[in-house]
């Protein structure tokens, strides 16, 4: 997903890649899914300041896209106000500290829903559409990588 915090909008979201409901493609060791046969490549117009996210299904099964956009935008704003920094830590020029904070905040938001048996979640909604009884979040691995687009200083 690509989020534009300056306007609080989702610029791009990849399509879910499933074999069937709750069985995502997995490009990894011992998987029949291979990058050569299954990887999808998209071209996305980006701007400086956009945040590019790579997330596991533990995030997107527990947070709707608009919640991800809001959490990322809010986290960037909080960081810029000086919140969320440990004492003595100063953001590097490459923005890694800010993006670490953004990823951690997004991970924690997904974890809250994953652990809540009464929460409404995208996974619950999809399960019901498939005719399966489901309630609450989905406990799963939750991984987030966040990167902010910046101009090269070349």
TrEMBL record:
Q: Which Enzyme Commission number(s) are on file for it?
A: 3.1.3.16
Assigned keywords, A-Z: Hydrolase, Magnesium, Manganese, Metal-binding, Protein phosphatase
Q: Which family does it belong to?
A: Belongs to the PP2C family.
What SUPFAM superfamilies does the annotation carry? PP2C-like
Query: Does the keyword field hold Hydrolase?
Result: yes
From which lineage does this chain's organism come?
Answer: Eukaryota, Fungi, Dikarya, Ascomycota, Pezizomycotina
Cofactor(s) needed for function: Mg(2+); Mn(2+)
Reactions it catalyzes = O-phospho-L-seryl-[protein] + H2O = L-seryl-[protein] + phosphate; O-phospho-L-threonyl-[protein] + H2O = L-threonyl-[protein] + phosphate
| Name the record gives this protein | Protein phosphatase
Q: Which species does this protein come from? A: Podospora pseudopauciseta
Q: Which PANTHER family does the protein's record reference? A: PROTEIN PHOSPHATASE, PROTEIN PHOSPHATASE 2C
Per the record, the domain of life is: Eukaryota
């Amino acid at each position: 997903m690509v989020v534009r915090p300056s306007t609080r909008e989702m610029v791009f979201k990849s399509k879910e890649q499933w074999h069937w409901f709750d069985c995502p493609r997995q490009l990894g060791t011992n998987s029949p899914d291979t990058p050569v046969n299954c990887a999808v490549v998209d071209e996305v117009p980006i701007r400086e300041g956009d945040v590019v996210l790579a997330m596991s299904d533990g995030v997107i099964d527990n947070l709707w896209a608009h919640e991800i956009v809001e959490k990322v935008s809010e986290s960037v704003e909080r960081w810029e106000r000086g919140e969320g920094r440990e004492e003595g830590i100063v953001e590097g020029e490459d923005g890694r500290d800010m993006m670490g904070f953004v990823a951690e905040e997004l991970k924690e938001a997904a974890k809250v829903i994953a652990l809540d048996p009464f929460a409404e979640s995208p996974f619950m909604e999809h399960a019901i559409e498939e005719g399966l009884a489901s309630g609450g979040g989905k406990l799963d691995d939750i991984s987030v990588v966040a990167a902010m687009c910046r101009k090269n200083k070349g």
